[in-house]
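Input/output pair, single chain:
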Amino acid sequence: MSESAPKGQETAGQPFGADGEHLLNANVAPATPEQAAEERRHQAELADSSREAAETEAEATDVVEAFQAQEAAAAEPASSLITPELKQATKQRQLAQVQRRLPTRSRALSRVIHQPAVRIVSEAAAATVSRPSGLLGGGLLALVGSIGYLYLTKHIGMTYNYFIFTLLFVGGFVLGLLIELLVWSLTASRRRAQ
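Output:
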């Protein structure tokens, strides 16, 4: 414990010398001035490399932030650039690609089905003809009515008329639509009252 630190150095717990230079090993002093100069040069190189690493990391962070800002800016106006004409052109291009892969008969049917006039009629029919309430009403009335009509024809001895099924289905469809309209109007008046 009687050992003392060499002149110009602090204790081992403090890594800096008296003149502020960093020593790798606090217990060993450079033996010659050349070694001391080499140690200072080495320390300067370490400081430069750590400074360069910090600058590179800061530049990388700046690049990432700039890229994210560009992505955000590019995403905003993209939605305003999509026009109905662009959507229609894209749809036609995709349809043509799919039709090229189809067999000849399917391709001809696809070209007929995807005509604008056919599409308009199809969409209008989908909004009115395929109403679930109409189909349910038509199906139920046609089933119950056909069973009753069949029972009646068997017991009276008449011939079964198949057109009756179609009339029962159409009548049930209209009845189902009327019931849906009635329910909708009652619930609409309740919604307005609230």
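The chain has six helices and no strands. Residues 8-14 have pLDDT under 50 and may be disordered.
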